Structures are given as C-alpha cells and as structure tokens.
Amino acid sequence: MSVTPSEFPPPYDPASAVDAPSAPEDLRIPAGVCIVGGGAGGLACAVKLGQLLADDPESLERLGEVPIVVVEKGKAVGSHSLSGAMVNPQPLRDLFPDLADADLPTYGAVDKEGVYFLPSAKRGIRLPTPPEFKNHGNHALSLSELNRWLAERAEELGAYVLPETDAQTLLVQDGRVAGIRTGVKGLDKDGAEKPGAAPATEVLAQATVIADGSQGTLREAALAHFGVSSPFPQIYALGVKELWRVPKPLDRIIHTLGWPLRGAGMYREFGGSWIYPMGPEHVSIGLVVGLDWADSTLSVHDLLQELKLHPLVRGILEGGERVEWGAKIIPEGGWYALPDQLDLPGALLVGDAAGLVNVPRLKGVHYAIRSGMQAAIAIHGALRAGFDLGSPGALHAYDEMVRGGEIGRDLHQVRNMRQMFQSGLVVGGSKVPLITATQGRIPRKPVPFEADSHHEVADLGSRYTAPDGEYTFDKLSSVFLSGNKTRDDQPNHIRLHPGRVPRDLARAWVNMCPAQVYEIVEGSESADGMVRVHMAPSNCVQCGAITAKGGRLTAPEGGSGPEYQRM
User: Which of 171, 337, 489, 490 has minimal Cβ neighbours within 10 Å of its Cβ?
Assistant: First the structure.
C-alpha cells in the first residue's frame, strides 16, 4: 500500500518561531547587522560588509558599537558545513582581489575530469563530459575549512562571530524583522532548566541576514510570517559524503550516473555521485539523490556503500581508510522555487536559505558567496542613502542584484531541467540536450512539480549488502565519524506526527535517515496496519531530510550536532 507523507503532518507551526522582542536589557545585544548562519553565504556577507565599512566610517557609526554579529549553531564555525565541493572560485577572487589563487583555502584547480554511466554493479561506460559537468578551472575545497577561514577574515574586519548560538526565534516588531532570539542552553529532555542553564538572549539588529540553510527554522518562519510564496514549492535532495585517506592520489574529478539508482520512472530516483581529490592523500566521495523518490526502502547511506563496491570506485579507495562522514540536504527547486521576495522589511535571504543552487551544474557554494556579498552591498547602499533598513523596500536592491545578475541568469537557463527527471533518468536525460542548446527556452512553459512530501511512497524492494567494516559501513559507525556529540538528555528537536502512522511511511523515515534516528516500535502495529515510531534524536546530524519527507527538524541546542573538520 502506498502512502503520502504530507497526510501525516508534524505538530509544528512556523508562527511558533516568531515573536516580539521581550528580553530584559541585560539579555539584549544591540547590533547593526545580525547574520544567522556561519556558512559561506553568511560569512561572505560579514567579510564584504566589513570591507565596505572600513572605508566608510559614517555608515559604520550608524550601525553602533556592535556593527556585525554572526550567530552559528555549530560547536565551531564549519562544524555543520558540508558540500562536494567543486567550486567556481570567481566570487572568492572578487571578495579577496588582493589574494592570489594559491592563498585561497582550496586544493587547487581541476585539470582532468571524467563522467561515467554505470549500467550495473560491474560495468562503467565513459561518457563525453556534458556541458553541465565541465569543471575545468574550478577548485576543490573543504567547505568546513573554507568557512573557518572566512570567519577569521570576518573577525579581522570587526565582525563578532558567536558559535554554539542557536537562533530559535525571529523577532518581529512594527511590521519589520528586529533580530533574533537564541534558545536556552542546558534544558533537560522535558524542557526544564538544568543547574547552570544559560538564558535566551536577544540580538536586536537594524538588518538581519537569514543564512540558516535549506531548512532553516528562521527561513521558514520569515516566509510564512510575511506571506511570501513561490511559483512552486522547494524540493530537495539528500547528499551523503565520506572522506577517505588513500595511498594513491587521485588526479581527476569523477562523476557517475546510473547504478545503484534505478532508471525507470516508477522509482523517481534522480541523482549521481562525485569523487573529488582533496590534496594528495584524501578523496571526497558522495552520492546525492532527490528526495521525491518513491521507494520506502531506499537508503542513500546504503546506496553509497553499494557504490563503493563498484570496480571503478573500489580501485580508487583500495588500501584506504574512511576518516570522516556526513550528510546534508540540498535545495533543488531552482528558479521556480525561489521566494517571490528575497528581501523583507529588515531582512534578506541568502545562499541555500533562498534556494540558490544550480542542480544541473552541481553548484551552490559560489552562489552562496556571491549572494552574501550582494546582501552586504545592498545593506551598505541603503545605509549610505540614509534609509531605515527596516522600512519596506529599503533592501530591495539585493533582490534585483540576485535575479538580474549571474545567479538569476544561470538559474533561469536551467529552470525546467530538474523537473524532467521526474520521469526517470532515461526520459529526463534525453531532454536535457535540447534544454541546454536553447538555454532553457524549450520547454516554453514551467514544468510543474510538487513538494517531496506530496509524492507517494511504497515498498519497491530496495535491499543492500551487509556492511563489511572495510569498504562498507553501518549507519551508527558513520554517525561516529561525523564527530556528533549531541547530549542524550537535551530536548528533542525533531517533530513527527504524534500518533501511529502507516508502516510504509515509518519505513520510509527509518531508511531515509542516514543517522539511524528512527525506529519502528516492535509490537506497536494496530489492526489497521499503523505503527509507532521511536526516535533517537541524539544521533541526528541535522541533515534536514525529515522536513522534506513529512516531519520537521527544528533548531536544536547550540553546539549540538556534527563537528565536521574537512567536509
């Protein structure tokens, strides 16, 4: 029996994450600009704004004693940062025009690349590199390392970077965003304060930059509160990644399509893998799959383990050691899923929070950096013009820069490409060349798509090889390699439908989660086939997949979650 996840919604209302300022004076931090999220977009915004203010003391004075604050929920900047990442370095060059490429925190430019179609677990066919996959001149990097480096540059320019700080609530007053409220730190499972608990703090800001990622709590709260929609809903993919130390350096980047994903349209399995060199001793390998899949037994974590047994991949990892693991969702809706407004009274949406990812080219990091820079330029321009940053339209230059510039042009050209693969790899792949050749002019009209949770799931028979502990691993050993140190006794930050749910939906959550958070309670099945689901939220690496598939990830306690080092 198939089931639609959206028919069993979680007990969550985005309005619960919106409130008016109410903290006493000693628990308020007055700031000029509050940036929510220490990712590439938020930190690029902090750096660019710091550069602009360094040459403009009058605008700097208008922002007060604390001109720029960056709040980051991870244990440290970079702890929650994960990406492929093969990055167009131009935005970094623009942000740091005085630095040579050798001084940027990357592993250098790509010289060689290969794309393979895998028809089976044993065969691989080398393909001509499609235009979308060409990476010549792009740089390999670790996103967590890049963000730590960006945070240092931001602090040198006067920004205050606050790790272990969760933005739980969007503060709105007089029709404008007025800042954020952090969560209380040190609550027990029932939400009661433990001895030594730290109270919530409010960061009151003239402008708030929402850079809290694909499924950020404040992103959703802001869009709902201000009634901002989009032509079509955002859709997502789940990426699972491993970092390996290998004895033989990899001299090229590799992308694969096909196996272990199934090409028939009934499965709705769209995605592919990457294998990137990370210096002479390390290799990044990952698999990304769209979360609109139909099979309740599909597990991206286990599909990646299967992929590593393919001769093409095993030859690269032979004799190596897995040293780190992580998982994260990626926004895939593109042009038609962008919010109708990227600027709100007193706030801006940047990077993944705005959905700025080019799925065909597997690129989002350089859009995050570019959008963060453009947010800083818009804020500085409004200050120079004497505007109140919270007045309607004061920051609209940002929206115009994103849509009318490089980001908007790129996304508009591929506006219908992701949707084509809802019919399967073979049918979708046959239409891509025409879209590419016409720069998106064909098809003429939007190809509609639905939210991932609106697609039915059923048991379509995915089965996986047992882990061998050498090349393939179980989920709990993977969570250990994420560095996750979430307290077992902190409040549950995951919301699921509170009652029983159909077994196929429960099975979908269990298999989808790469961190083994969900488990069907044995003996809980009722006469109508409904079951209860048990959660182990301390396993959660905050990938966000549950939000796309019928539940809701809320902001956890600051400092919890993974502690990525080179992801």
Answer: 489
- Round to whole Å and give the CA distance between 386 and 394: 10
What is the pLDDT at residue 132?
A: 84
Residue with tokens 């190596």: 320
61/162 same-domain check: yes
pLDDT computed for residue 111 by the predictor: 87
* CA–CA–CA angle 212, 323, 145 (5° rounding): 40
State the residue range of the domain holding 281: 105-141+233-333
Task: Give the residue ranges of the chain where pLDDT is below 50.
Answer: none
User: Given CA atoms 202, 153, 84, 245 in this order, what sign does their dihedral have?
Assistant: negative
pLDDT at position 396: 98
* Residue 62: per-residue pLDDT: 98
The model's pTM:
0.97
| CB 39 within 8 Å of CB 81 | yes
Q: Is residue 56 domain-resident?
A: yes
Reading the block at residue 175, the tokens are 């029709």
CATH number of the domain that 174 lies in? 3.50.50.60
Where in 337-452 does DSSP place strands (E)?
343-344, 347-349
CB-based contact 218:210 (threshold 8 Å) = yes
Instruction: State the virtual CA torsion across 65, 67, 72, 75 in degrees, nearest 10.
Output: -40
Terminal-residue alpha carbon distance, the chain: 39
Under 8 Å between Cβ of 558 and 162:
no
